[in-house]
Amino acid sequence: MPARHAVAPPQGCPSPPRRRCGLAHPERPARTLSRFPTSGDNVFKQPSVFALSVALAATGLAGLAQADTWPSKPIKVVLPYTPGGSVDTSTRMVMEPVAKALGQPIVIENKPGANTTVGTAQLVRSAADGYTFGIVPASYAANYTLFKNLPYKHSDLAPVSHLVDIPMYLFTRAQTPAKNVKELVAWAKTKPVSYASTGPGSTGHFLGAAFTLKEGIDGTHVPYNGSAPILADLTSGQIDFLFDPAMVPMPHVKAGTLKVLAVSLPKRCPCTPDVPTLEEAGVPGFVQSSWIGLMAPAGTPKAIVDRLSTEIGKALKNPELIKKLADMGMSAQGSTPAQFQALIERDTQNYAAIAKQANISLDR
Fold it and tell me: I need a surface site. Which of 30, 66, 109, 164 has the fewest CB within 10 A?
């Protein structure tokens, strides 16, 4: 067991040569203390500014002291997906150098279910002691719109860092009579079409809904359980297009069974420099990627959050890690807690607007 640093209790009275506590000031008459307050006493006295300053300073110093000895044992990261997927793999890639820098193991605990809300709820219930953190994907921001009665709220968690962006690409089968986005839109307006996603409320679902609404396409959403089963139906013509990360569909593009038309980023991704953005392809103002970030239970000492955020930022500047993530179709980020908070707030608003227009909800 790691050693615990006990804080010595304050002494009741200072030792001589100082005057003993409890003696009246020699120039003032001794005050008689009654058991009950008199009319001249203010029962609800506010603490002085000095007292508040001391209390706040003590709290800050306690947090700094805790950060100085942190971490003294393994750290747990709750991940709301099954093992082996892209989020699980990329998280382990990022956390490996962070664990080395901190000198303690980082243990990934997979807790999938209910559009990631099971894992997030467990994180919220965890102690805010700096030894439990959790991964949240972009669906974390969407869930506040999708579910009316989530078992947590934004203020239950504190942002740590934006880890990676996951660009979303527009794919269609090789036989679709469209060489670009404009031609796909023109073709889709001649008939009812369908678009796939990895599940209701996923980033792909929101992007497909927003795209069909924006372009006036009569599109039906078809949810699947993961990217792999989508590809069989997409290549065979059972569905018409898909917004998805590059990792699973891109090999089929190289094989000639699918084609990629655009990416929903503000600028082209370095990993796919030949793929235009949707803005370049004629769909202005259409920018939305998926992402992964790290959160802490609210109340986790700020000094610990800041240190972990800093170590993550250092890890994500490593060229070798950047390349590994790029090979998975991901873009290394790293951010301050405040920057990640701004991203969450922006996407919460974006998803709410799309859900309202497309009538997307997961409440039963």
Answer: 30
In whole angstroms, how far apart are CA 41 and each of 36, 38, 50, 299? 10, 5, 21, 36
Residue with tokens 């503000």: 266
Q: Measured between alpha carbons, how far is 306 from 159 in angstroms, rounded to an integer?
A: 10
Query: What are the DSSP calls for 239-301, one per residue?
Result: S-EEEE-STTTHHHHHHTSEEEEEE-SSS--TTSTTSPBTTTTT-TT----EEEEEEEETT--
CA atoms within 13 A on the CB side of 213: 16
What are the residue ranges spanned by the domains of the chain?
A: 75-166+289-358, 169-263
Residues of the chain short of pLDDT 70, as ranges, are: 1-66, 364
What is the fold, at CATH topology level, of the domain defined by 169-263?
D-Maltodextrin-Binding Protein; domain 2 (3.40.190)
One DSSP character per residue, 123-174 reads: HHHS-SSSSEEEEEETHHHHHHHH-SS-S--GGGEEEEEEEEEE--EEEEET
Name the β-bridge partners of 222: 196
Tens digits of residue pLDDT in 205-246? 999 999 999 999 999 999 998 788 899 999 999 999 999 999
- Hey, do 75-166+289-358 and 169-263 end up sharing a CATH topology, with the first three levels equal? yes
**CA-wise closest residue to 242 among 304, 286, 275, 193:** 193
Classify domain 75-166+289-358 at the CATH superfamily level. Answer: Bordetella uptake gene, domain 1 (3.40.190.150)
